[in-house]
Design a protein that fits this description.
Helix 2 runs parallel beside helix 8. The chain has about 325 residues and is an alpha/beta fold. The N and C termini lie far apart (about 150 Å). It has a domain of about 190 residues: Glycoside hydrolase/deacetylase (TIM Barrel, Alpha-Beta Barrel), CATH 3.20.20. The chain contains twelve helices and eight strands.
């Protein structure tokens, strides 16, 4: 019995001890693993595809209305004669042209046509082209629009009366015409404005040989050659001029035929490359000033800078007093 009481007493004591120990030991909480907070996804800007703006169609190039020469494939040229018809010289020229089987273009003055309509009629019948050169050869660039219109209309009517056809080409006297005049004349009369690229200056009457040589020297395929059928030296120069031009292989057509042969100008490959290569821009003056170039001092100059300067010797003459 005493043994049992002792065992019971020990068991009670052990239970009490365990309970006290359990109360004094802090409970260990299970560690919580911290999860990183994920940042909210950035809003991706939605690219709105803009509809391409409708391209404005390029305006078609207006066809040229002024010609000094024509780019052609072949040795074709146009001989032109101004200021006639002359009562004596134009018939001689028509004979020479017929002998060489050449068709030319005559830019005539209305007042001369009125005097010699039969000569103009002959030229037209023989296949030459008749074109307007105004009524009385004024400087159109210095005239009013009504004055210019009168010059053109009267000549147009006179040519129609003599030949049965109205002209389609016009050469302004002296080649003098404004851009505005070109446009309204073309719009109103349908004329192409014809100038020239070969001028022998035969109106100065330099002599047949000079006229011939200048024409031969300057004429190229597509040239429009200017001459005047009112100067004797010009008419005298034509037979040999025609012979030598033919010997060079040139073929003669009227101005309208030459215009109909026009071909587009193909740019040279080197010129195209030069246009595409951006030109180097030279530095501006301010940039050049800003870039200081280091100057290498001369050895003697360096030595002089390092050697202390000697004090100036005292003057032998005493300085005068300001009050003296």
């Amino acid at each position: 019995m005493p043994k049992n009481c002792l065992l019971l007493s020990c068991a009670v004591t052990l239970s009490f001890t365990v309970a006290v120990a359990a109360q004094s030991t802090p409970a260990i909480k299970p560690a919580i693993t911290a999860r990183p907070v994920e940042a909210a996804p950035k809003a991706v800007p939605v690219k709105v595809q803009k509809e391409p703006a409708a391209k404005t169609p390029a305006r078609p190039k207006e066809p040229p209305i002024t010609f000094n020469s024509v780019h052609v494939d072949g040795p074709y040229i146009a001989m032109t004669f101004d200021d006639g018809p002359s009562a004596t010289l134009t018939p001689k020229l028509l004979d020479i042209l017929a002998a060489h089987h050449i068709k030319a273009t005559f830019f005539v003055l209305g007042e001369m046509v009125a005097q010699h309509p039969e000569i103009l009629a002959r030229a037209a019948q023989e296949g030459h082209e008749i074109a307007s050169h105004s009524w009385s050869h004024p400087n159109l660039a210095k005239m009013s629009q009504e004055g210019v219109r009168s010059q053109l209309q009267r000549t147009d009517d006179e040519i129609k009366s003599a030949t049965g056809k109205r002209p389609t080409l016009f050469r302004p006297p002296y080649g003098s015409i404004t851009e505005h005049e070109k446009k309204w004349i073309h719009d109103e009369y349908g004329y192409d404005i014809i100038l020239w690229d070969v001028d022998p200056l035969d109106w100065k009457r330099p002599g047949p040989a000079v006229v011939r040589n200048r024409i031969l020297k300057e004429t190229r395929p597509g040239s429009i050659v200017l001459s005047h059928d009112i100067h004797p030296g010009t008419i005298e120069a034509m037979p040999s001029t025609f012979d030598e031009l033919e010997a060079k292989g040139f073929k003669f057509v009227t101005v309208s035929e030459l215009l109909a042969m026009a071909t587009p100008v193909t740019p040279h490959p080197k010129m195209e490359a030069a246009e595409k290569t951006p030109a180097k821009v030279a530095p501006s003056v301010s940039e050049s000033i800003g870039r200081a170039t280091p100057v290498t001092p001369h050895p003697k100059a360096e030595a002089a800078e390092k050697t202390p300067a000697k004090a100036a010797a005292p003057s032998a003459v005493p300085t005068a007093s300001p009050s003296g």
